[in-house]
Design goal:
GO cellular component, one term: phenylalanine-tRNA ligase complex
Distance between the termini: 21 Å
EC number: 6.1.1.20
Keywords: Ligase, RNA-binding, tRNA-binding
CATH class of the largest domain: Alpha Beta
Strand content: 25-35%
CATH topology of the largest domain: Phenylalanyl-tRNA Synthetase, Chain B, domain 3
CATH superfamily of the largest domain: Phenylalanyl-trna Synthetase, Chain B, domain 3
Number of helices: 8
Structural class: alpha+beta
Organism: Thermocrinis ruber
Shape: globular
GO molecular function: ATP binding; magnesium ion binding; phenylalanine-tRNA ligase activity; tRNA binding
CATH architecture of the largest domain: 3-Layer(bba) Sandwich
Largest sheet: 5 strands, antiparallel
Length: 359
Amino acid sequence: MKAPLSWLAEFVDLKGLSPEEIAQGLTLRSVETSVSVWEQSVEGVVFGKVLKVENHPQRQELKVCKVGVGDVVQVVTRDQEIKEGDGVLVALPGARVGDRVISKRDFSGVVSEGMLLSAQELGLEDSSQGVLVIEEKFSPGTPAREVLGFGEYVFEVEITPNRGDLLSILGLAREISALFDLPFKEPQDKTFEDFGSVEVRVEDPDCKRYRAVLIEGVQVKPSPLWLRRRLWQCGIKSINNVVDITNYVMLERGQPLHAFDWEKIEGPVVIRRAKKGEKINTLMGVEKELSEENLVIADGEKILALGGVVGGLESGVREYTKSVLLEGAYFEPFRIRRSARSLGVQTESSYRFERNVDI
């Protein structure tokens, strides 16, 4: 598990302790821990504001952008979604992006004076679609290192099977508080009561607790940069604001959540065992044939998710989703372990449920 120093510091006062001292103390007295600096090679990459977007005069798959980076530069991109006003990261000629050195390039008579970068090209994600758009305000020409928050210390903790309580920022902060005799800052929770209720039937004893609320009027869009940054630092890909906040809660509190597109659900939500031969097309785009070992979340027509492991593609949140069913549950660890191993699937959620999250 990865844990940024600044996130831990929200719950325990770490002043006076170096990152190395914290890692050494955890290793000697609790769990093996290492620390490194979250960094990528972004020399010559700066923040820019898209001022104008035009079609390429000869190639319809390209856009020609005027981008303010202090001066105004012309950049050609394949991203068809780019628009005026977007904040972007621009690799200027001479910039080093990973192992590449950026130079001016001619695209059928139009010179590109740089490159608009995706999260993948910046080394933040293994795969990504389109240019990374930044909604937050920065001065044109601000170095990418400052925009993205590189230089953060990140701990990597090897959690043993008996220490599921450490599989969260809060859990690790409590451990550090106890080991170093430091005051722990309890998180400030808020209670919301204006959610819609749904009919839920728990038909399997290995689901000890299941809660679901309906949230309507949702606008699915990219998450703010601060949230995406924390997911990236923990090795989690940013998807959209709905999926990202479920992952954020899981990382901070240790409780996996799952969001369904409510309009894809028919009838009551049922927690049951799969029937032999039933199938699910997972969020990874892989179809899995199930057995009676597998605990599933279903409706009256189909399987929505493999309980505690992974969601189904059909009921996943998309850009057009307007209403979300948010799930929080507790499953017996042995059931999730058997289910995940029988299908050869391990996720951040199953990793935590297998190790006994707080009920």
